[in-house]
Structure formats: C-alpha cells, structure tokens
Write a structure and sequence with these properties.
alpha/beta, Rossmann fold, 7-stranded mixed beta sheet, 9 strands, about 30% helix, binds S-adenosylmethionine
C-alpha cells in the first residue's frame, strides 16, 4: 500500500511556519484574502506523533496534492475523480470524506468497521494529522487516506458525483459574532459538497453549539439541492448570540427545526464528550441530495 507521492514531500508539508524579513511570523502568501475556518498554528509534534508521522505518512498521507511547500491549498490542477480514487485506494468502493477529522478517532473507527468503503480525512492541524496516521498505522487500515489541506478548497477539486457521504462533526464553533463568517459550513461549501456527492448522497453534520445549529439550518434548510432528511423536532432561538450575549439565548424567540437522531456511525470523540460534560445538547443533521 502506498500513497501517491514521496515521503519527502510529506515531511516538508509539516513545517509550516512562515517568517517575514523582520523575523515576525506571517500568514503564508497563498491565502490571499480568503476567510479561513482555522488559525494556522504549527506546534512541534511530540516524539510519539513525530514517530507516527515518520513511520506512516508514506502509506496514508496524500502528498503532491498541495499547491506548494507549506501550502494548505490543493494544487490548481488537482482533480479527485474516479481514476484518482482507483489509483490511490486501489478500488472503486464508495468514498466517504470527513471534513475536519481532528484526532481521527472517528474516521479511523469507521474505516476499521467498514472495509467495503473508502475514507478520506481532511485536516489542517499537524498533531491531528499525525494522530490519525498513528491510528491508521497501528490498526493497519487499508481503506483510509489523509490529506492535510484546507477542506473547502479540496472539495472544489472533487469531480462531480465521486463521493457517497461527507461528514463534518463538531466544526470549530467560532463563537464571537464577528467570527461567525469563519464557520466552515457556508453556502459555497454546501454547493461544492453537493456537486461532489453522488445522487442520493448525504452530508452529515453535528454540533454541540446551539448557535451553530441555527447557523446550519440557515445555510442548509432553504437549499433546493439538499433535503433535510431528519425526523426530530428541535426548538432553537431564531436569533444569533455571540460570546458576549450567549446567556441571552434562552430568552430569545424560538422556532421548531428538523434535525436527526444521533448518527450511529459516529464514535464519541473528545469534542463530543466535552460538549456532553458541559451539559450541551448535541445537534445532528442529515442533508440528502435532491
Ligand atoms: C472541533 S474539531 C472536531 C474534530 C473532529 N471532527 C471531532 O469530532 O473530534 C474541528 C477540526 O476541524 C479542523 N478544521 C478547521 N477548519 C478546517 C479546514 N478548513 N480544513 C480542514 N480541517 C479544518 C480543525 O483543525 C479541527 O481539528
């Protein structure tokens, strides 16, 4: 089993610090004025994760897909089509993509439980990528690959109809009002996910942040290319709150929205555990193509 390109590319991709002439860290130039759903950080990997990277990257981490050294953008001519799937996974099984896979607990468990499916984990954060490599390597998974890439940009490179499911579980909440635009679920991503999905495919989303749940409904429920396939009725405030006025939410006008039962294919990750421990309600969404 080999990923597409060389190990040398992969290790270069983990060294992401960019320094200005004055010696100050700067944002890499490739990002232009794009609104990003993540903050670029490049902490050192501890020994265990560095070892995992060195041992397993060549098997699992897709290299040669980034626009340049240290870039989290996909290269401009990348197309993730059925030929690419055949080349990388070695078969034409249905492809599931997890956007923002974090430590990889979920995608690794799913890949282990479903050898009949192909999985692609998209994550930007070095330690998350390294931990996913560790899980994949230790379990000897053959149907999982990882791309260290800005997920919304990668989704633009997916050919129409190639993906059977997209998962976005516990996306970064960006609680301040002025940061809501950084939330990864956005109309542009929804359109790209729809195009990538085969007819009948689903986008599964989960969040433990009530205000994010309202945000998902606003982005997704009015679309004519997705149907909300949930069967649960949930009452939510119909106005947004931010970090400063989150406590006001209960007193705001509420309305009923449709959501889903907990997705049984999701393992309990640390993010979900933290949300539950804090007494938050988990909101699950299933949007099916139409
Ligand atoms: C709150 S964590 C949740 C992780 C995982 N889904 C879980 O449930 O445990 C959100 C993850 O999304 C990743 N992320 C945020 N924006 C991203 C982007 N544009 N592309 C890829 N990953 C992203 C973050 O680095 C982080 O690991």
């Amino acid at each position: 089993m080999t990923a597409e390109n060389s190990t040398a590319d992969l290790t270069a991709a983990s060294d992401t610090t960019v320094v200005s002439a004055a010696g100050e860290p700067t944002r890499p130039p490739l990002y232009g004025r794009k609104v990003l759903s993540f903050v670029r950080r490049s902490p050192r990997l501890d020994d265990r994760l560095q070892r995992a990277w060195d041992t397993y990257a060549h098997n699992y981490l897709l290299s040669g897909i980034n626009a340049g050294e240290g870039s989290l953008d996909p290269r401009a001519d990348l197309t993730l089509d059925t030929a690419y799937v055949q080349r990388v996974w070695g078969n034409a099984n249905p492809l599931v993509i997890e956007i923002g896979s974090g430590q990889g607990e979920n995608v690794a468990a799913a890949a282990e439980a479903h050898p009949e499916l192909n999985f692609l984990a998209l994550e930007v954060y070095d330690p998350g990528v390294a931990h996913t490599l560790l899980l994949a390597g230790k379990r000897g998974l053959r149907n999982l690959r990882i791309a260290q890439v800005n997920a919304p940009e990668l989704m633009k490179a997916v050919a129409p109809g190639v993906v059977s499911e997209v998962w976005t579980f516990f996306p970064d909440p960006w609680p301040k009002m002025k940061h809501h635009k950084r939330r990864i679920v956005q109309p542009e991503l929804a359109a790209d996910v729809r195009r990538a999905l085969a007819d009948g495919g689903v986008w599964r989303i989960a969040t433990d942040i009530e205000d994010y749940a309202l945000h998902v409904h606003e982005v997704m429920d009015g679309r004519d290319d997705f149907a909300n396939a949930g069967a649960l009725t949930v009452s939510l405030p119909t106005e947004h709150v931010g970090k400063g006025n989150a406590a006001d939410a209960a007193g705001l006008p509420h309305a009923d929205f449709t959501e889903s039962e907990r997705f049984e294919g999701r393992v309990l990750t640390n993010f979900e555990k933290k949300g539950l421990a804090a007494g938050r309600v988990i909101h699950d969404f299933t949007y099916r193509t139409r």
